[in-house]
Amino acid sequence: MMNPQVPLQVPHIGRLPAGARNSITDVEGVRVGHCTLDAGAVQTGVTVIAPHGGNLFTHKLPAAAAVINGFGKSAGLVQLEELGLLETPIALSNTFAVGALLNAQIAHTVRANPECGRSLPTVNGLVLECNDGYLNDLQAMAVQPAHFELAMAALSVEVAQGAVGAGRGMSSFGLKGGIGTASRVATLDSQGQSYTVGALVLSNFGRLPELILAGDPLGARLAASETPDTAPEKGSIIMILATDAPLDARQLKRLAIRAGAGLARTGSAYGHGSGDIALAFSTAQAIEADADCLHLALLADHLLDPLFHAAADCIEQAIVHALFAAETLRGRDGHVRLSLRERLAS
User: Fold this and answer.
1) Structure pTM?
2) The 3-state secondary structure of the chain, one letter per residue
3) In this model, does residue 4 exceed pLDDT 50?
4) 102-111 pLDDT, tens per residue?
5) Residue at 34 is within a domain
6) What family does the database annotate (predicted)?
7) What is the pLDDT of residues 48-83, one digit of tens each?
8) Is residue 147 situated within a structural domain?
């Protein structure tokens, strides 16, 4: 019988309105593709975020990352920090898949740009990861370059959530986690100028007693009848923010840092063993790789507060969406993660 103290509907986070899809793809040009691997002990996959439909190697986008807690094995963050440019799609998967996906991104770029690494510079592939080893057999090394291409072939503005793609084997708050997405529309001034901020998370963090759902300490009530969980936080989350606001890399780093506010609202304290990484990019202005002089229009910093609020709200919303969308999953060695919906019904 459903506990009357728990919510039946997905709550809307904050006061800002969502975009048409309540998805990162509400930012025009952004598409997401999944490839899901579901075979017994192999419960994993790949998720790809394409910021625009063109050639990112020749038409890069401003981007920045914020490492809230750096327990992670990602690729590409060093050059992103230095140059502030995104030049490949963003690939998400499990920890042991980083190498295969980096090779896949390089090969994908070389096919579109045959002189890459010869007369042209090398490419900075970007791969971000979480450890799905509780449900997935990491040692199977199941993710291969072909799965990146399948995710790329599946790119769409419609984004499946929950136990799909890179989220297939992920856990959150001792429950089933995975992929979540959301968006918010922020109005900046009295003239009604508005921009969209979209989020996609790979949610694999948290302890049940600490779960806060839209301000409600739901996890403490759910955990009250269980043996106390004293295990340290060892999960991770990757948080991707996209916006159509004209921002440079410095401003995008400020936006990425606000992802931590949304994460904290759900009950995370960014534990020692947690890899909590946020990345933000702007689609407003592409930067040509061979340009000698850049002329970019940028928002003034004093207008950024509504975008900061939007970033925090849609990150929190995306985490909530991942919890509500995920289904109960049985993985390697009989390990099970109940979905939030099933846990609420128990």
Assistant:
1) 0.97
2) CCCCCCCCCCCCCCCCCCCCCCCHHHCCCCEEEEEEEEECCEEEEEEEEECCCCCCCCEEEEEEEEEEEECCCCECHHHHHHHCEECCCEEEEEHHHHHHHHHHHHHHHHHHCCCECCCECCCCCEEEEECCCCCCCHHHCCCCHHHHHHHHHCCECCCCCECCHHHCCCEECCEECEEEEEEEEEECCCCCCEEEEEEEEEEECCCHHHCCECCECHHHHHHCCCCCCCCCCCCEEEEEEEECCCCCHHHHHHHHHCHHHHHHHCCCCCCCCCEEEEEEEECCCCEECCCCCCCCCCCCHHHCHHHHHHHHHHHHHHHHHHHHHCCCEECHHHCEECCHHHHHHC
3) no
4) 999 999 999 9
5) yes
6) Belongs to the peptidase S58 family.
7) 999 999 999 999 999 999 999 999 999 999 999 999
8) yes
Among 7-21, 28-42, 235-249, 298-312, where is mean pLDDT lowest? 7-21
Is 199 contained in some domain?
yes
Tokens found for residue 172: 């959150």
Q: Which residue has the higher pLDDT, 256 or 191?
A: 256
Separation in Å, CA 65 to CA 32, 56, 58, 86 = 19, 18, 21, 11
Kindly report the CA angle at 210 between 223 and 10, in degrees rounded to 5?
85
Do you know the residue count of the chain?
346
Summarised one tens digit per residue, pLDDT across range 143-195 is: 999 999 999 999 999 999 999 999 999 999 999 999 999 999 999 977 789 99
List active site positions: 236, 274, 276
pLDDT band at 7 (very low <50, low <70, confident <90, very high): low
Cβ atoms < 10 Å from Cβ of 39: 10
pLDDT of residue 5: 58
251 and 299 in contact (C-beta within 8 Å)? yes
- Identify the CATH number of the domain in which residue 67 sits: 3.60.70.12
How many alpha carbons fall within 13 Å on the CB side of residue 115? 4
Q: Residue 38: which domain range?
A: 24-339
Written as six digits, the tokens of 17 are 């309105």
pLDDT mean across residues, the chain: 95
Question: Does residue 74 lie in a domain region?
Answer: yes
